[in-house]
Specification:
The complex is a heterodimer. Chain A is an all-alpha fold. In chain A, 76% of the residues lie in helices and 0% in strands. In chain B, a hairpin with a 5-residue loop joins strand 3 and strand 4. Classes of the chains: A mainly alpha, B mainly beta. Chains A and B meet through helix 1, helix 2, helix 3 and helix 4 of A and helix 1, helix 2 and strand 25 of B.
Chain lengths: 154, 531
C-alpha cells in the first residue's frame, strides 16, 4: 500500500509536468496559427495540446488524487494522509481556477502557481513515503513503542 | 523529518511491519486484529482499539466517497436508446395539467403532422448529401460535407404561399442526415430532427420534405443529425422567401478555421449600382456570435430572423451582432458619388458592395453594437399579450457533475444536467411567456423550433423599439430575457442552444404539445443523434 502511495504521488507530479508541456505546445500552436491568419472563435477546434490538457486535468489527475487520498489512509506514511488530502484539495482548487481563468485570464497565473504547489506537495509526499520505506528496512521500528496509530486528521 | 518526528503516526509493527501495509489493511478490513504488541497492558489495548476505529472510519469514509461518486456516475448514464418524451420532467408553466398526468401514451403521432400531401410543388429541389472533400469558392480544399457537391448547398428561393418540396438523398454520409428548416414554421413532421420528427436518412436512403412557405424572410436549412459535426463541415444552405431578385444572400461559415461568406474566404466583391439600396441577407451558420461592421455609408437593419423591423433608422457608428443560427438583413446604399460599402465579418472575411472597381474604405471596428431592444420604432404586434396561459422559466447555469458518465463542468437547465431537463408542456392556442436567464459564464444562442417569439424585455427593461421577433436569441452571461409566443404549431419541438457543441453537451430541452407523441427514438436502429 505504501508503494502504491509512492507511485501515485509520482504519477501526480508527473501529470503536472505533462500538463505544463502540453499547454506550452498548445499556446505556441495558437500563436503560430494566429500568425497565419487563422481566427479563434467558438468554431475553433481545440488543438491537441488543449485536448490532452483538459483530459489529464479534468479526469486523470483528479482520479489519481482521489485514489491517492484514499490510499493514504492505509499506507501508513508519517504525515501521509495530510499531504495526500492537501493534494486533493489543491487539485479541486486547480480546476476552479481554470474555469475562473476563462472569464478572467489573469487568474491563469494562479492556476500556474497552483500547479507547482500540486507537484510540490505530491513530490514531498512521495519523498517522505520513500524515506519512511527506507528507514523501515534499515532500522526495525522499536517494538512496543508508544504507537498512537493512524489518526484521521494526521 | 523522520518518522519519529511525526507523533501522529508511527511506523506500525504489526503484520510483519514495514512494506506489508497492504496486507495489514486487508487483514483489518477482514476484521482480523493485528498481533497485539507484547507487554500490552490495558493502555496498549485501548490504543489498538482507537487505531481500529480510525482505520474503519477511514475505510468507511473512502467507501462513502467512492460510492457517492460511483452512484453519481452510474446515475448520469444516458441509455443508448430512448424517447425524448420519456426524459426529463414535465413543466406545465402554471397552466393546465392533463388529468392523466405526464402521459403521452395513445397521443397523436407527430409523424402525421406533415405538410400538404397533394399538390404540385412550386419549388422542387433534390439535395444529395455527401461526405467528401470539396473546394471553396476561394480555392481552399476542405474535408467535410456537401449538398449537390457544394457547400453551402443550393440557395432555395420561394414566394409566400409556395409549396416547397425537397427530396433529400443520402449518398455517402455515414452517420445519416436530416434537414431542419431553421426559423421556418413548418408542420412538425417536416422539421427534420433525427430521433424526434423522423429517423436519420441512412446512406442510400431518401426523405421528402413538403411544406408551404408561410412567412417572407431569410432562413436557412441544415442537418439535424450529428449536427455539431455536419453543420460545421458544410451541410447547410440558405432558404429565402420573397426576396427581390437583386438581394444578396450571404451565409457566413467558418470552414477549418477559415471564415467565409458565400463559401469564399477573404474579401468578396459583389456588384451593385450606386445610389440604390441593396438588401444583404446575412446568415450566421457558425456556433459563436458574428459581429459585423459596415463602413463606407450609413446602413439599416431591416430584418432580424426573417422578420422585418418597424421604422429602422440609419446607423453609422455601431456594429451588429448576429446570434449563432440567426439572420440579419441589412440595407446598404453604395454612395452615389462613387465608392463602395464594406461589410466586415471579422477574421479576414468581408463583402464589398458597389459598382465594379469602386473601392471601399478599410474596416473599422466600432466600440458599440446596435441594441435591438431599442432600435426602430414601436409597431403593431400580432400577439395577444393581455394574458399568458403558460409562464416558463429556463435558467441556464453551469455545474460540476457527470454527463453521461463523463466528469466535468457542464451546462445546466433549471439546475439539472441532461437528460434531466424540462419538457415545456403546452396546449394548442396557448399564449406562452418564457423567461430565459443565463448565469453560466458564456453566451448561449437559444433556438426554438417551429415558432417565432417576440422579445418583451431584457433584464427587466421592456422592449422600446421595433417589435423584435426572433428564433435564435443570444442570451449573454448575466442576462435575462422575457419572450412570448403563441403555441399554434402542434408537435414536439426542440428548444436548444445553437452553439451546437453545447447542444451535444446537453443543452437541449423540448416544447411538447399535450396529446402528441413521437414514434422516433434517440439512438435506435437509425442511430439518431440530433445534436
Amino acid at each position: 500500500m505504501r508503494s502504491l502511495y509512492l507511485w501515485l504521488s509520482r504519477l501526480i507530479a508527473l501529470g503536472v509536468v505533462v500538463q505544463v508541456l502540453v499547454i506550452a505546445w498548445s499556446a505556441f500552436d495558437i500563436f503560430n496559427k494566429a500568425n497565419d491568419g487563422v481566427p479563434f472563435t467558438e468554431d475553433t477546434d481545440a488543438n491537441a495540446g488543449q485536448l490532452v490538457h483538459s483530459a489529464v486535468g479534468m479526469m486523470v489527475i483528479p482520479a489519481l488524487a482521489l485514489i491517492f487520498g484514499i490510499v493514504s489512509f492505509f499506507a501508513k506514511v508519517p504525515g501521509g494522509i495530510g499531504r495526500a488530502w492537501i493534494t486533493v484539495g489543491l487539485v479541486v482548487l486547480q480546476i476552479v481556477l481554470a474555469f475562473v481563468s476563462f472569464d478572467a485570464p489573469v487568474v491563469g497565473m494562479l492556476h500556474a502557481l497552483n500547479a507547482f504547489a500540486i507537484a510540490g506537495v505530491a513530490g514531498v509526499a512521495g519523498a517522505r513515503a520513500s524515506r519512511a520505506a527506507r528507514s523501515d528496512t534499515s532500522v526495525a521500528a522499536p517494538v512496543g513503542s508508544s504507537d498512537p496509530g493512524v489518526t484521521a486528521g494526521a | 523529518m523522520t518518522a519519529l518526528d511525526d507523533p501522529a503516526e508511527q511506523v506500525p509493527t504489526s503484520a510483519g511491519g514495514d512494506n506489508h501495509a497492504l496486507s495489514t489493511a486487508v487483514d483489518d478490513a477482514a476484521g482480523t486484529p493485528p498481533a497485539p504488541a507484547p507487554g500490552g497492558a490495558e493502555a496498549a489495548g485501548r490504543r489498538s482499539w482507537v487505531r481500529h476505529l480510525t482505520r474503519w472510519g477511514a475505510i468507511g469514509l473512502s467507501l462513502v466517497l467512492v460510492g457517492t461518486l460511483g452512484y453519481l456516475w452510474f446515475d448520469s448514464r444516458v441509455p443508448s436508446t430512448y424517447s425524448v418524451i420519456d426524459m426529463g420532467y414535465a413543466d406545465y408553466g402554471g397552466g393546465a395539467v392533463p388529468l392523466a398526468g405526464h402521459q403521452h401514451a395513445g397521443g397523436v403521432s407527430v409523424s402525421t403532422l406533415t405538410g400538404p400531401a397533394t399538390g404540385t410543388p412550386a419549388v422542387a429541389v433534390t439535395l444529395t448529401a455527401r461526405k467528401e472533400s470539396f473546394t471553396l469558392a476561394s480555392g481552399e480544399r476542405v474535408d467535410g460535407y456537401t449538398l449537390n457537391h457544394a457547400s453551402p448547398g443550393p440557395e432555395i428561393r420561394a414566394r409566400v404561399g409556395d409549396l416547397v418540396q425537397v427530396d433529400l438523398v443520402n449518398e455517402s454520409v455515414p452517420d445519416g442526415v436530416a434537414l431542419h428548416w431553421h426559423g421556418v414554421r413548418v408542420p412538425n413532421a417536416e422539421d427534420g430532427v433525427a430521433g424526434v420528427t423522423q429517423d436519420a436518412v441512412p446512406v442510400g436512403g431518401r426523405h421528402t420534405y413538403r411544406f408551404v412557405a408561410q412567412d417572407a424572410g431569410t432562413y436557412w436549412y441544415h442537418s439535424h443529425q450529428v449536427s455539431h459535426e455536419q453543420v460545421k463541415g458544410g451541410l447547410f444552405g440558405a432558404l429565402v422567401v420573397d426576396p427581390s431578385p437583386a438581394d444578396l444572400v450571404l451565409p457566413v461559415h467558418t470552414y477549418d478555421g477559415r471564415r467565409t461568406v458565400q463559401g469564399a474566404s477573404g474579401e468578396r466583391r459583389l456588384p451593385a449600382p450606386a445610389g440604390v439600396p441593396a438588401r444583404l441577407r446575412l446568415i450566421n451558420t457558425d456556433n459563436g456570435p458574428l459581429r459585423l461592421s459596415v463602413t463606407g455609408a450609413p446602413y439599416r437593419v431591416v430584418a432580424v430572423d426573417g422578420h422585418d423591423l418597424h421604422g429602422p433608422t440609419d446607423i453609422s457608428d455601431r456594429g451588429v451582432v448576429i446570434a449563432a443560427g440567426g439572420r440579419v438583413d441589412l440595407s446598404v446604399t453604395p454612395p452615389a458619388g462613387g465608392g463602395a460599402v464594406r461589410v466586415d465579418l471579422g477574421a479576414g472575411s468581408s463583402v464589398v458592395v458597389g459598382p465594379a472597381g469602386a473601392s471601399a474604405p478599410a474596416a473599422v471596428t466600432p466600440a458599440a453594437v446596435v441594441d435591438l431592444l431599442s432600435y426602430g420604432t414601436r409597431g403593431p404586434v400580432d400577439l395577444d399579450l393581455s394574458h399568458f396561459d403558460r409562464d416558463f422559466t429556463l435558467s441556464i447555469g453551469r455545474s460540476p457533475g457527470f454527463l453521461d458518465g463523463r466528469p466535468g463542468l457542464w451546462w445546466t437547465m433549471n439546475g439539472h444536467l441532461y437528460p434531466d431537463v424540462p419538457m415545456f408542456m403546452v396546449r394548442t392556442g396557448d399564449i406562452v411567456k418564457m423567461t430565459i436567464s443565463n448565469d453560466s459564464g458564456e453566451v448561449h444562442p437559444m433556438h426554438l423550433h417551429g415558432h417565432v417569439a417576440l422579445v418583451l424585455s431584457r433584464n427587466g427593461v421592456p422592449s422600446s423599439g421595433s417589435p423584435w421577433w426572433t428564433d435564435s436569441l443570444d442570451v449573454d452571461d448575466g442576462e435575462s430575457y422575457v419572450i412570448a409566443f403563441k403555441a399554434d404549431n402542434p408537435g414536439i419541438w426542440l428548444d436548444h442552444c445553437h452553439n451546437l457543441p453545447h447542444a451535444t453537451d446537453g443543452m437541449i430541452a423540448h416544447l411538447a404539445y399535450e396529446g402528441y407523441t413521437t414514434p422516433y427514438v434517440i439512438g435506435g436502429k437509425a442511430d439518431n443523434a440530433p445534436e
